[in-house]
Amino acid sequence: MSTANGGYYLPEPSPWPVIMSSGLFITALGFILQINGYAPGPWLMLVGGAIIVYIMFRWFGQVIAESEAGIYNDQVDMSFRLGMGWFIFSEVMFFAAFFGALFYVRVFSVEWLAATDMLWPEFDGLWPTAGPGPDALKAIAAGTEPGPGQFSPMGAWGIPAINTAILLTSGATVTAAHWALKKDNRGSLVFWMAITSLLGIVFLSLQAYEYAHAWTELDLTMSAGVYGATFYMLTGFHGFHVTMGTIMLIVILVRSMKGHFKPDQHFGFEGVAWYWHFVDVVWLGLFIFVYWF
Amino acid sequence: MSEAAHHRPTGLSRWLFTTNHKDIGTMYLIFAFMMAIIGALMSLVIRAELFEPGLQLVDPNFFNQMTTVHALVMVFGFIMPAFVGLANWMIPMMIGAPDMALPRLNNWSFWLLPPAATLLIISLFVPGGGPAAGWTLYPPLSIQGGMGMDFTILTVHMLGISSILGSINIIATILNMRAPGMNLMKMPLFVWTWLITAFLLLASIPVFAGAVTMLLTDRHFGTQFFDAAGGGDPVLFQHIFWFFGHPEVYILVLPAFGVISQVIPTFARKPLFGYSSMVFATAAIAFLSFIVWAHHMYTVGMPMAGELFFMYATMLIAVPTGVKVFNWVATMWQGSMTFETPMLFAIATVFTFTMGGVTGLMLALTPVDFQYHDTYFVVAHFHYVIVGGSVLGLFTAVYYWLPKWTGHMYSEGIGKLHFWLTMIGINLTFFPQHFSGLAGMPRRIPDYALQFAEFNMWSTYGAFLAVFSQLIFFYLVWKTVKGGTKATDQVWEGAEGLEWTVPSPAPYHTFETPPKVS
């Protein structure tokens, strides 16, 4: 271990980053081959994905060990806080691109298309658009015009409303866990973390059920016009982030059970809690602009 | 802690596993130089084809691939990594920090680049060839392209992760690792410009990632974001792209502003004129960069109110930029100037960048842009800004800090030869393009009308001169690394700042004990 005199921890050379990059490279190559229909694609993705997961175990494992050994001082802690905070900011900007696309099509392009009559004669620029759905290509092939009513949009007041309640509740329970940690009440910490993780899993299960329902019964697929595109892009990336967040919550749960974290030093916990609040806020945006209005 | 206590790997694994900001900075700079060579060779393919009218050397599709990949390589492979390399080397030394705030992450930021570049280069050799839609990747062309476009999209994703992680590291370092007494308004301007650049990167790169993700799903997963048949709009891509793209050009040039703000005071032997106005001007440019994106799309058919807003907002940028140019000139005013190679490059940067800035103001005017749009005038404009601003700024930085990095003085004579050949080369390349553009020569076309023949011939001569002059630069750097006159700690008589208080070459670990800044 090399530390500066001020006590700032400077890690030794590490093999993890470069192996992580090669894992990403193999995954990316496999993905490209896969979507272009070349055989080794899935195998490469499997190998690359395994490398990534393995390195995450080793790299995070090392960081956790260092943290538990108490070699991170307050200044290192502040670097982590700045890092996580600005990482979440970059994630916000990633979602901003898709929200921007949503607002653009809702405010501009659908309306412009309605004004030109170019899609089909009765196309009126409403949101949710009611077409063209997955049958549009078939309709064109059959020589008829694609029309409205080929899919049903997703309503707000079923599963999405329940999911909103679940995520908001989980935001409260993770705060309860944080209070317990600060009061050094280990049992309460583990209990609330377990509840929070469970709420994450329930959210994801309901979301999976909703996707199956939309895809098979409502004919709402990714190719269901720009409504389907924005719907799946926004909810899909959000769902991916909730998946990551839930895994992170479970890691924190396990670490809590193992006795990690101190009442005055527990950035690992806080970073995950920030991330969880972030996916919560994004969901509120989704609920309002994708499902409700 | 003594040097012997470190288990520092040697050989290849030193570079693969390093967590040292100087090692990582060096790797960034070497990588950037390699990419610059690749990008420059592609530009020579373009210029050779355009040497005379008619189609002679390459087929048009390959020509389009060259214009596209040349731009992607230069922007994402050369200039951005080169400035991150400078940031790595210099920021910890300039603020009195022992290293970057997150050293392992720093290593990962670099080692994402070579695989990403590999993906981009592979794209040229797959069925259908590389991306040929221009670096802006506009649909529908980018949706129709072959699998080379998928390679490009994944390249962008990996480069994006690298930029985001690098920016996070730079922000954490600057905000958290400054030596006692080094408050924000005492920071060297290079550090300031990089802090602001890092914010620009964090706010814009993820948006680009979102845009290319939508391209990818439009290409392979049936979405219709950019297809009017499904209610989408190809123009939507342009909006999202340029929301990223305009901050991106300031990402390329702001660190160069920082560099010349260090160099001009050194060789004018005067403190920088208007330090705080420089900081605020940089912040103002950064803010404005997010509300001017549609000036790249005047001809796409926007409402009049939009055209007017983006025109006025764009012209507003000339104010803080003018403040900067004024301050540089005012710093030189009545200074006791000497003209070592870094100073020559710094003055040239101010001059050529200002030329690019003025043509930028011309392009900002909506009515005249209808004439200039997609002509060689635009090509001349942005090459004056990017080559004349960013690349000359990079040369300024390398000559200025090379003695600090290597411990040796470079050869002033060879440096000046490199400077003059480069200046003649790039001006010969890009100056005639103003005229061919104003006369109506379109960009990204491998053939042209006879009337443009002479301008293009000059341009091609200039390009070959500019590119081959860089062999001199390579030779100079190589020689300086290998040996030469020993450099002093301060190196330059008028140099001020913490990096000049440590030995040359700078020791592997600097400022393990934070220096005191008064």
3D structure, described in words:
The complex is a heterodimer of chains A (293) and B (518). Chain A starts with a strand and ends with a helix. Chain A has 293 residues and is an all-alpha fold. In chain A, helix 3 packs parallel to helix 8 (267-292). Chain A has helices at residues 16-35, 41-68, 74-116, 136-141, 159-182, 186-216, 225-257, 267-292, and strands spanning 2-3, 9-10. In chain A, strand 1 (2-3) and strand 2 form a beta hairpin. Chain B starts with 11 loop residues before the first helix and ends in a 36-residue tail after the last helix. The model of chain B is unreliable at 1-5 (pLDDT under 50). Chain B is built from 17 helices and no strands. Chain B is an all-alpha fold. Chain B has one domain (21-500): Cytochrome C Oxidase, Chain A (Up-down Bundle). Classes of the chains: A mainly alpha (293), B mainly alpha (518). Chains A and B meet through strand 1, helix 1, helix 3 and helix 7 of A and helix 1, helix 4, helix 5, helix 7 and helix 8 of B.
What's the level 1 CATH class of chain B? Mainly Alpha
Approximately what portion of the residues of chain B adopt beta-strand conformation? under 5%
What is the radius of gyration of chain B? Answer: 23 Å
Give the low-confidence spans of chain A: 1-5
- Radius of gyration of chain A, in angstroms, nearest whole number: 23 Å
The pLDDT mean of chain A sits at 91
Distance between the termini of chain B: 26 Å
Number of helices of chain A: 8
Q: How would you classify the helix and strand content of chain B by structural class?
A: mainly alpha
User: Residue share in helices of chain A?
Assistant: over 70%
Question: What is the H/E string of chain B?
Answer: HHHHHHHHHHHHHHHHH
Shape of chain B: globular
State the oligomer.
Answer: heterodimer
Low-confidence stretches of chain B: 1-5
Give the strand tally of chain A: 2
Sheet with most strands of chain A: 2 strands, antiparallel
E-strand count of chain B = 0
Mean pLDDT of chain B: 95
**H and E string of chain A:** EEHHHHHHHH
